Amino acid sequence: VPLNEIPWAEIPWAELPADMPWTEIPWTSIPKDFPWNEVPLNEIPWAEIPWTELPADMPWTEIPWTEIPKDFPWKEVPLNEIPWAEIPWAELPADMPWTEIPWTSIPKDFPWKEVPLNEIPWAEIPWTELPADMPWTEIPWTSIPNDFPWNEVPLNEIPWAEIPWVELPADMPWTEIPWTEIPNDFPWNEVPLNEISWAEIPWAELPADMPWTEIPWTSIPKDFPWKEVPLNEIPWADIPWDSLPENYPWAIVPWGQIPEDFPWEGLGTGECPHAYSGGENDDGWITVLEPTCSVEGTKSRICIICRAPETESIPATGVHIFQNNICTDCQRHRIILKSGSASGEYSGVPLKEESCSVVSGTLADPGHVIMGVYAQATTVGIQDNIFTATVKDASGADVTDLYIIGYEYGTLELTTRSVTISTGSAKKAYDGSALICREFTAEGLTEGDKVLLTFTGRQTPRGQSQNTATVKIVDRNGADVTANYSVNIIFGTLTVE
User: Fold this and answer.
1) Contacts for 142 with CB less than 8 Å, ≥ 6 apart
2) DSSP assignment, residue 74?
3) Tens of pLDDT, residues 201-246
4) DSSP string across 182-233
5) Which residue in 155, 95, 99, 160 sits closest to 125, CA to CA?
6) Angle CA(8)–CA(11)–CA(12) in degrees, nearest 5?
7) Is 460 helix (H, G, I), strand (E, B) or coil?
8) With 0-12 CB in 10 A as exposed, 13-18 as middle and 19+ as buried, what is 60?
9) Cβ proximity of 431 and 449 under 8 Å
10) Sign of dihedral through CA atoms 422, 427, 430, 434?
11) Residues with Cβ < 8 Å from 27, sequence gap 6 or more?
């Protein structure tokens, strides 16, 4: 009879004949007393059997996992009891919670290239479980398999800058790391600095607090910022000259420490180009004697190439420091003198006031006398009574060098002098020629001055006009002193009848 027409679920297994071909039974309907424990489990087509048809005491963990019942209750069984390595990934349901799989046992056909790599807990996965074609270079390096074969993979393909140093194994061959990429938390302070291949490390990769002065100077980073570090802190004697950049300013090397392979013969035999470093302004100069208010100082420097000395003077400061009006340096007395004032009307004689007084400080000796050369006023107006002073002792010797003299000035005020000038008058009968009169009088002129008139008045036709003129007053030397006068001019009359 057709086996699929028999209602097997209704038939007790014990009623079947011993030679019953049970493997051909349609497994969608199974006898209730089917002897699961007596038949070879690997001969049962599990993929055709509904899970609900299996008895409660079914030893499901012994099922051959190459064939799984379609309605296997994945979410009801302990995931860590399933032998994942034996299960074809294709057999798992679409909604399988794969991220909960115990990663110590992974299905052999796990689709590594189809799942988000950053969702896989790599640190829990034995490296040996990964397939041979695993794209390991795409692993998120913040979580690394514990047995990652560091010694077997090309170190220069590992993105070291992304890997936390603490993730690396204790026996990591760190000295073979390509130093162009360094883990961010690399323990610079914990490793032997002399084992680091400094010449391969970009300086920019080093941390800000890198103890650079402890770097073994026989191997120097190629982009070491020579011009930014204090040159006197570099142990030049330890540095091979060949390690320095080609354009290195060798002339400023501190010559107390010279590289052992310094190319002396390459300096040439001509005149030394002289180079200097250090000193107060990094030009080599060191002050030997400080200048004072009135005495020059000296400074010197030594060429760092040929060791030749050079000395120069430092100008006196001209700055005095006083205590009780006496310079604490040169011991000169400070006094301030003020000239007297005077005023007067122009008289042809220069206005002078030849006197002064001490308005601050005191003379070094009561017997000292102040002598002055004073200004004088010869033109109308107000001006300072400027003077220069010298000091003499009782014997007449000049002792001005004992003093630092300051000046204040009085004033000389010269006012105008009044003068009245009258031009003459004249008359005549009309004759067709011009009438001119050059007579005049002047009252108020000072002795020695004289008036020069230029007459502009003249009368030709019958009638009258003023005898006008322009005025210029000069002194006995011919100098124009008109501005020193207040001139009142009275014009006469020219009459032609």
Assistant:
1) 162, 163, 164, 167
2) G
3) 777 777 766 666 667 766 667 677 766 666 666 776 677 766 666 6
4) --TT--TTTS-GGGS-GGGS-GGGS-TT--GGGS-TTS--TT--GGGS-GGG
5) 99
6) 130
7) coil
8) middle
9) no
10) negative
11) 44, 45, 48, 49, 53
With a cut of 50, say whether residue 268 has pLDDT above it.
Answer: no
Q: Which two tokens stand for residue 464?
A: 């009258």
List beta partners, residue 440: 423
What DSSP designation does 399 have? -
Determine the Cα angle at 179 with ends 176 and 182, to 5°.
105
- H or E element that contains 314: strand 309-314
Strand partners, 493: 466
Residue with tokens 């300013």: 249
**H/E element holding 327?**
strand 326-327
Residue 183 in this model has a pLDDT that exceeds 50: yes
Element (H, E) at 466: strand 463-467
In this structure, the strands spanning 356-360 and 469-474 are unpaired
Token pair, residue 186, equals 């690399």
Q: What CA–CA distance (Å, rounded) separates 82 from 75?
A: 12
Residue 284 Ramachandran class (φ > 0 left, ψ -120 to 50 alpha, else beta): left
In this structure, the chain runs to a length of 497
Cα 322 to chain centroid distance, Å, stands at: 41
pLDDT reading at 484 higher than 60 = yes
Distance of CA 84 to the CA centre of its chain: 62
Is the pLDDT assigned to residue 261 strictly greater than 70? Answer: no
Cβ(421)–Cβ(487) below 8 Å: yes
365 pLDDT more than 80: yes
Mean pLDDT score of the chain, rounded to an integer? 80
Which token pair is 383? 């001006």
- C-beta pairs of 295-302 under 8 Å, 24+ apart in sequence: 295/330, 301/276, 302/276
How far apart, in Å, are the Cα atoms of 273 and each of 251, 260, 304, 305, 307? Answer: 9, 22, 10, 8, 12
- Check: CB of residue 353 under 8 Å from CB of residue 412: yes
Q: What is the DSSP letter of 96?
A: -
How far apart CA 73 and CA 60 sit, in angstroms, is: 11
